[in-house]
């Protein structure tokens, strides 16, 4: 029982120090991308990759259906044949960067998710995005790593536990998506 209560206590602590101004700013960057009809790209590895796919689903369907403007969103984690071809024939480090080189245009937006903030393929994606004129956002933990330093905007979860970092990233995803799913004019803005 102690493990359960400790885990939840530490998750609450990470949530309590989350900078909501940063969350609101990231949410506004997503809104601005939608307004200018920019493509939004998402990437991550493992659980962060699952969060990227989930976010693409929630923005693409839940936050877009019956809306005057829709989110143009792609999770770079979801084209497995392309990813494995790049990993096998070039390097795993470029599986997201090379997709961006084919698909992105200046003014698009990349959200890169990495628990450690130091995954080589995430860093390469951020570097490629910057070269291509793509706005960058990083979600990380563990002090932020390189990702927090390189991205235009970063949210760093105050935890050194991968499970809790991923939990907060999932909550960030829902804080952003459900904002756009709310009924227009609702009291919760």
3D structure, described in words:
With 189 residues, the protein is an alpha/beta fold. The chain has a single domain, classed as Glucose-6-phosphate isomerase like protein, domain 1 (Rossmann fold). The protein has helices spanning 2-16, 20-35, 47-62, 80-89, 97-103, 120-132, 145-150, 162-181, and strands at residues 39-44, 72-75, 109-114, 135-140, 153-156. Strands 2-1-3-4-5 form a five-stranded parallel beta sheet, with helices on both faces. Helix 2 packs across helix 8. The chain is globular and about 50 Å long. The chain starts with a helix and ends in an 8-residue tail after the last helix.
Distance between the first and last residues' Cα = 37 Å
Q: Summarize the main sheet.
A: 5 strands, parallel
Our Rg estimate from Cα atoms comes to 16 Å
Order of helices and strands: HHEHEHHEHEHEH
Q: Do you know the CATH topology?
A: Rossmann fold
Strand content: 5-15%
Q: Compute the number of helices.
A: 8
**Could you name the CATH homologous superfamily?**
Glucose-6-phosphate isomerase like protein, domain 1
- The percent range for helix content is 40-55%
Oligomeric description of these chains: single chain
Global morphology? globular
Any guess at the CATH architecture? Answer: 3-Layer(aba) Sandwich
Q: Domain count, please report it.
A: 1
Enumerate the spans where pLDDT stays under 50 for 5 or more consecutive residues.
Answer: 185-189
Strand pairing plus helix content: what structural class?
alpha/beta
